[in-house]
Amino acid sequence: MNRLLDDLRIVEISAFIAAPLGGMTMAQMGAEVIRIDPIGGGLDFARWPVAKNGASLYWAGLNKAKRSAALALDKPEGRELARALVAAPGPGAGILLTNLPPLRGLDFASLKAARADAIVLRLLGNRDGSAAVDYTVNAASGFPLVTGSGGAPVNHVLPAWDIAAGLYLATGLLAAERHRSRTGEGQEVTAALADVMLATVANLGYVGDVQVNGHARPAIGNDLYGSFGRDFATADGRRVMVIALTPRQWRALGEATGLAERLAMIGPMMGVDLDTEAGRYEARDAIAALVARWCAGRTLDEVRQAFAGTGVLWGQFQDFRRLVEDDPRCSEANPLFATVDQPGIGRYLTPGMPLDFGASPRLPPRPAPLLGEHTDAVLAEVLGLASAEIGRLHDAGVVAGPNGR
Amino acid sequence: MNRLLDDLRIVEISAFIAAPLGGMTMAQMGAEVIRIDPIGGGLDFARWPVAKNGASLYWAGLNKAKRSAALALDKPEGRELARALVAAPGPGAGILLTNLPPLRGLDFASLKAARADAIVLRLLGNRDGSAAVDYTVNAASGFPLVTGSGGAPVNHVLPAWDIAAGLYLATGLLAAERHRSRTGEGQEVTAALADVMLATVANLGYVGDVQVNGHARPAIGNDLYGSFGRDFATADGRRVMVIALTPRQWRALGEATGLAERLAMIGPMMGVDLDTEAGRYEARDAIAALVARWCAGRTLDEVRQAFAGTGVLWGQFQDFRRLVEDDPRCSEANPLFATVDQPGIGRYLTPGMPLDFGASPRLPPRPAPLLGEHTDAVLAEVLGLASAEIGRLHDAGVVAGPNGR
User: Fold this and answer.
1) A238 half-sphere exposure, CB direction, 13 A CA radius
2) Against a cut of 0.95, is the pTM above it?
3) How close does chain A come to B116, measured CA to CA in Å?
4) Contact B58 A204 (CB under 8 A)
């Protein structure tokens, strides 16, 4: 958390990962982000992982520092309140972030009619409006067929396309708001999840590889493409990733392992120049044969000691449990984290924004709201509704507070 | 490309993916981004994939729409030119984006001495300044050990942490520039690649899962965690991903396959409520047994026809070659792309920014520069150097133009 954007108000009508992450990124920089959900919660309200009481750790994780308003979006009066929240006055307001099909009155044209300088950020699946999610976009991307050893596709578990799309939305929101603050002009900004994938595959050179070289990158297990890097087993059954991308890292690997002389024999043996990345890639199985034997004779701790301070680029593989329980970076020793009481779930390690801004000191991370926690406050503060009117809306089932009341 | 940020100038001293992607995102929204490299190119200048002449498709992909200046950063005079380029006057200038260890005179304090409102975005590996790259951060994240079927770690091929970090940098840059335009205050913004990973793992609920539930998400192959989704083989040897996240998608799957009645038998058989995501996850093997037999009896085209217009959420797996050659989204039919002549490589499909801004029409994507292509222009335009002085700098080996001349 910081206060960099504390003059902005963003209304978010969203589900799942991308749009919620985009909104949370704004909230973690101080913006007031009002997530509007249907009464009872949206499509992602019970997404796994969940706590034993069914409360979603995933939902809590992606909605930190936001306010929550629960509105009957299936009723005209609920949609009208949502529209009024987006279109409410104020130089930093008038911004909607959404990945859901536009509800009546919440499309860009209607919002623009209600507020001439409205900004709408809209994430689509495909550009033509057809459905696509991280799983289907990933299947099309080419990556699952080169993940692992090849043959059957292997899906990523990290929803990387959603995360990239959410951060593109955050970037686009700030660019659009910058434009508005200079010109007074609002706009609709659209992004398709499929286009985020396509642009990324091409940015990394894989489209050119097919078109220019007639070549498609093969599956090579955990090897680093075009340089040296591979995973190795240690004597105590752990695994480490060892990499030599730069000339310095390559020299360090030879020195730290004491294998420099043997490694040097590989150049003439394989007929390659090991001072080039392409040469090390060509000779990777021979290099790995030596490094594998060296790692297999050492425990993880011995590997760590041998590499400490040498400039070798390496890392240990660990599961989520070891990450949380053993890695000091995943603890309150890291200013990124604090232990936060997440209402409805309990106390656990909660991250803030992974950027440190020198001009806006890091504040403690804030939890996610309860669903509907801020319904009444938002209706009063943003729309100026009196408490009698808010009571009527509750009675009519148009709005709900925490836990659906 | 668009012109949203055409009053900004950003100097980038970078290598690899994250910082170059952050800078390219600014360039694709119209900012003048001057990438400074050592004469001969930086650490990423030959990264794979490469064209047959050795030119890097990867480097070209991540530096589109930038200007390139080649300076002898190992010489005081070269570093002084770099510093002068960062500190040059102008309300939208004075911004450095970097992921490399600070060169003398290019740390934040020195830049601030040269320009009081300087903004520096600095990507670290770990917060303490120690080295970490996508491969090592990923090993620590927990994801490789739950990717695929479990047991041995499986690395992602998409450098997802780098991509997220690059987009966080873009977001941070715009937030810092917004702050400066309102207050006159510059700042240093730092991000650690490891913190991007840690925040993301926690945002998705996996840290809370360990701390609150004492549970770590297991490896489940290509299955969707906590709902129904799996990959299936078709009669013609292709594979498809079939998903039922929402109630509507679940109904559509039953209707489109004609399996609704059989699927309904699974609820009582397994003792679960198939109207819940958790119930469908619990019964996923039984559901998959029916869907697998259905898919195995149909070619990909027949699956496509059966699902068309039904609301079933599905996608085909395809490799990079099929993506480029067969997928209409990866072609000039998609406004994201144009065929661009990339100097030194050739003509191929090149993406622009995966966001469409209503207030700033999409312009054709621009290629990456040749290394040093804009050295002379930048020295003249930004620093006002006369051609005789630029000639002297060439003769002294302090600067170089395209192809090292």
Assistant:
1) 19
2) yes
3) 13
4) yes
Chain B positions touching A317 (Cβ under 8 A) are 139-140, 144-145, 153
Structure tokens at B66: 């930038």
Known catalytic membership, residue A162: yes
- Asked if B355 and A132 come within 8 Å (Cβ–Cβ), the reply is no
Whether A405 has a pLDDT exceeding 70, the answer reads: no
B237 touches chain A (CB under 8 A): no
Q: Parallel, antiparallel, or unpaired: how do β-strands A95-98 and A119-124 relate?
A: parallel
The chain-wide mean pLDDT, for chain B, equals 97
pLDDT at B405: 63
ipTM entry: 0.98
pLDDT score, position B153: 98
Among B31, B88, B58, residue whose Cα is nearest residue B382: B88
pLDDT of residue A215: 95
Secondary structure (3-state) at B288: helix
Query: What digits encode the pLDDT tens for the residues B149-193?
Result: 998 999 999 999 999 999 999 999 999 999 999 999 999 999 999
Average pLDDT over residues A15-33: 98
Q: Which residues of A touch B66 (CB under 8 A)?
A: none
Which pLDDT tens digit goes with each residue over B116-132? 999 999 999 999 999 99
For A210, the closest of B17, B139, B320 (CB atoms) is B320
End-to-end CA distance of chain B: 30
Q: Which residues of A318-354 are buried (b: 16+ CB within 10 A; e: fewer)?
A: bbbbbbbeebebbeeebebbbebebebbbebbbbbbb
How many helices (H) and strands (E) are present in chain B, helices listed first?
A: 16, 13
Q: Which 3 state secondary structure label does DSSP give B37?
A: strand
* Cβ contact, residue pair B178, A5, below 8 Å: yes
Q: Which of the following is catalytic: B162, B236, B327, B395?
A: B162
Reported as type and span, the H/E element at residue B133 is none
Quote the CA–CA distance of B164 and B160 in Å, as a whole number. 6
Determine how many CB atoms are found less than 10 A away from the CB of residue A167. 26
CB atoms within 10 A of CB B185: 14
* Cβ–Cβ below 8 Å for B163 and A159: no
Helix (H, G, I), strand (E, B) or coil at A172: helix
Question: From the CB of residue A104, how many other CB atoms can be counted at a distance below 10 Å?
Answer: 11
Mutate to test the interface with A, among B203, B209, B277, B312 (most CBs of A within 10 A): B203
Residues 94..113 of A with a Cβ closer than 8 Å to B: which? 108
pLDDT over 70 (residue B88): yes
In this complex, do B174 and A179 lie within 8 Å of one another by their Cβ atoms?
no
pLDDT of residue A223 exceeding 80: yes
Chain A residues with CB under 8 Å of B62 CB are 203-204
Q: Which pair of tokens denotes residue B143?
A: 């994801």
Residue whose C-alpha is closest to residue A170's, from B60, B222, B22: B22
Residue of B nearest to A237 (CA): B152
The pLDDT of residue A310 is 97
Is the pLDDT score of A105 beyond 80? yes
**What pLDDT, on the 0 to 100 scale, is given for residue B63?**
98
Q: Rounded to a whole number, what is the distance in Å from the CA of A158 to chain B's nearest CA?
A: 7
A203 contact B CB<8A: yes
DSSP A316-374: E---HHHHHHH-TTSSTTSTTEEEEEETTTEEEEEE--S-EETTBPPPPP-PPPPTTTT
pLDDT in tens, B199-245: 999 999 999 999 999 999 999 999 999 999 999 999 999 999 999 99
Q: CA angle A167-A173-A174, nearest 5°?
A: 95
CB B291 within 8 A of CB B232: yes
Which helix (H) or strand (E) covers residue A112, if one does? helix A108-114
